[in-house]
């Protein structure tokens, strides 16, 4: 189904320069590229200033900081915003022949000003592994700085932008200035909403739009990505009764080298994926890792001339906050390279329909506890019963663990394509969440999708467990009463490292445990430092 997000009325005139489109979430790449570039070692103050001069700066962080949660240490939280807009910086439509005909990204009527990629990077004060958390774009939350109502989190930007435009109307602003000021309101609302959801302060942010992703992907192509399974996402033409869709991407399993247009399709695809948008989030994470890996392998991060060339592209389309001091940040940014980043996706609680749109329900208490555990190293959380202020719905299964005080009656059997060892590890993790450990065993090596089945009386527990993997629980006549059977594909074990052709990032070098492994994340982690394989 095509995007139906909140969007203001389309605007006129073509932009001063032709640009290229991008896809919904992959713009994050541009942000991460800019961050990684700033962290390169060995450059002088003059060289850093040369890279910084000409960046598009935003003051949107100042309002967000007024009500931000307190900092517990000197760590840095960086928000990467991928803006799904078919507009340029002045509010003009991107060239139709590029957006629609070349990249099949839809017209300027689609997407509005949705933020379809939101990733928070937590850079520890004393170095070490960086935690990156993706917020699913359809999470149904209370917005802050927009209209204060419940919306999909991706819509906070567009709602605030449209309200700002209405207030600024009649003040004699040029179209470009009206676009600039109203986008500032959108950025501020997005930052504040993310802060409220995660209960952490945002210290810096970077935003990249449709144009930016394509331009940067073009500058660094070819880009290698890895798929666990072959994909075929044919384009469906738009008709009077069907809004069309599809990216045209067709790739085999394993590693493929992509040009810029294919890269957009890779991070944009959501049809023909087991978990739809949630799988696309993992695509975004893997793509960022692959680009950073390529930049490092090619020596670009240590070549000032090459970085200047790349930043010439970044400066046109990436927006950063005006408090970003590249010299100060350079001391922490090296942590973003060399496999020191692990991406996780925050869990959803389930799905429901609001106003004709499907949304993700979320357990906000659980999310806050997960973030505290990862960012501040607090004890791992148990999931509360429901989101504060929101009654649980029948379609919204709690994520990953039973409610406080409840004793699950279900026994959980676990079979894993990765072997009995992986099954035992996952069985232990589920037992720690409060479920009764059952049988463990092997699943066929060719198992391509994780499944959760259940017998009579075990539906609620099965739904909780299925949310842990981002799949749907289904009843099965062959499963005994009060029993749940989890069958894990090799790439879907939450507590195991995902398959990757690179040896880097597969396990902590010092043998330390991964703090995210015991947390109820939405699917497996994506580890940087190589070319991670995803669905």
Quick synopsis:
This protein is an alpha/beta fold and 535 residues long. It is 31% helix and 19% strand. The two termini are 20 Å apart.
SSE diagram, text form:
Blueprint: H1 28-38, H2 45-52, E1 56-58, H3 61-66, E2 76-84, H4 96-102, E3 114-123, E4 130-134, E5 140-142, E6 150-152, H5 156-168, H6 175-198, E7 204-208, H7 210-220, E8 223-227, E9 231-232, E10 250-251, E11 254-258, H8 260-268, H9 277-297, H10 304-317, E12 318-321, H11 326-329, E13 341-345, E14 350-354, E15 357-361, H12 364-376, E16 411-416, H13 420-432, E17 436-442, E18 451-454, H14 459-469, E19 473-475, E20 483-488, E21 526-527, E22 533-534
Parallel strand pairs: 1-12, 2-7, 4-13, 8-22, 16-17, 16-20, 18-19
Antiparallel strand pairs: 2-3, 3-4, 5-6, 7-12, 8-11, 9-10, 13-21, 14-15, 18-20
Helix pairs in contact: 1-7, 1-9, 5-6, 7-8, 7-10, 8-9
- In total, how many beta strands? 22
- What structural category do the secondary elements indicate? alpha/beta
Shape: globular
Strand-residue fraction? 15-25%
> Helix segment count?
14
**Architecture of the largest domain, according to CATH?**
3-Layer(aba) Sandwich
Which strand order does the major sheet show? 1-12-7-2-3-4-13-21
> Uncertain runs with pLDDT below 50, 5 residues or more?
1-43, 383-407, 492-512
Q: What is the number of independent domains?
A: 2
CATH superfamily of the largest domain: LCP protein
Q: Whole-number average pLDDT?
A: 75
Whole-number radius of gyration? 22 Å
Task: Determine the fraction of residues in helical runs and give it as a percent range.
Answer: 25-40%
Main beta sheet: strand number and arrangement? 8 strands, mixed
The end-to-end span amounts to 20 Å
């Amino acid at each position: 189904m095509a995007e139906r997000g909140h969007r203001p009325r389309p605007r006129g005139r073509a932009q001063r320069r032709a640009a290229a489109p991008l896809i919904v979430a992959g713009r994050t790449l541009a942000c991460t590229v800019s961050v990684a570039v700033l962290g390169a070692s060995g450059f002088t103050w003059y060289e850093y200033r040369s890279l910084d001069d000409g960046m598009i700066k935003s003051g949107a962080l100042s309002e967000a900081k007024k009500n931000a949660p307190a900092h517990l240490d000197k760590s840095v939280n960086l928000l990467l915003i991928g803006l799904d807009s078919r507009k340029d910086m002045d509010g003009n439509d991107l060239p139709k022949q590029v957006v629609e005909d070349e990249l099949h990204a839809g017209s300027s009527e689609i997407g509005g000003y949705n933020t379809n990629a939101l990733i928070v990077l937590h850079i520890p004060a004393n170095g070490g592994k960086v935690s990156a958390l993706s917020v699913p774009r359809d999470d149904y939350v209370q917005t802050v700085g927009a209209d204060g109502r419940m919306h999909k989190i991706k819509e906070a930007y567009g709602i605030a932008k449209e309200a700002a435009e209405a207030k600024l109307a009649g003040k004699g602003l040029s179209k470009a200035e009206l676009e600039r000021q109203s986008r500032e309101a959108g950025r501020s609302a997005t930052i504040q909403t993310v802060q409220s959801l995660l209960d952490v302060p945002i210290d810096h942010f970077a935003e990249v739009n449709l144009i930016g992703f394509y331009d940067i992907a073009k500058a660094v192509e070819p880009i290698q990505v890895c798929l666990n399974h072959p994909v075929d996402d044919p384009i469906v033409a738009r008709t009077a009764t069907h809004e069309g869709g599809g990216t045209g991407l067709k790739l085999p399993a394993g590693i493929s080298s992509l040009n810029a247009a294919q890269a957009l399709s890779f991070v944009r695809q959501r049809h023909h994926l087991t978990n739809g948008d949630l799988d696309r989030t993992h695509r975004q994470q893997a793509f960022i890792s692959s680009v950073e890996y390529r930049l490092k392998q090619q020596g670009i991060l240590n070549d000032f001339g090459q970085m200047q060339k790349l930043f010439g592209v970044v400066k046109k389309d990436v927006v950063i906050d005006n408090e970003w001091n590249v010299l100060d940040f350079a001391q922490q940014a090296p942590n973003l390279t060399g496999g020191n980043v692990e991406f996780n996706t925050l869990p959803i609680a389930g799905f429901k329909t609001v106003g004709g749109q499907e949304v993700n329900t979320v357990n906000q208490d659980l999310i806050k506890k997960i973030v505290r555990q990862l960012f501040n190293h607090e004890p791992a959380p148990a999931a509360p019963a429901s989101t504060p202020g929101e009654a649980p719905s029948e379609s919204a299964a709690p994520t990953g663990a039973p409610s406080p005080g409840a004793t699950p009656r279900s026994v959980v059997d676990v079979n894993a394509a990765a072997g009995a060892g992986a099954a035992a590890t996952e069985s232990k993790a589920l037992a720690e969440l409060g479920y009764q450990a059952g049988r463990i065993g092997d699943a066929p090596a060719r198992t391509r999708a994780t499944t959760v089945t259940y017998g009579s009386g075990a539906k609620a527990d099965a739904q909780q467990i299925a949310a842990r993997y981002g799949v749907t629980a289904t009843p099965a006549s062959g499963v005994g009463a009060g029993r749940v059977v989890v069958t894990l594909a090799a790439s879907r074990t939450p507590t195991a490292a995902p398959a990757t052709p690179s040896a880097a990032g597969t396990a902590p070098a010092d043998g330390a445990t991964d703090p995210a492994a015991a947390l109820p994340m939405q699917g497996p982690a994506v580890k940087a430092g190589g070319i991670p394989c995803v669905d």
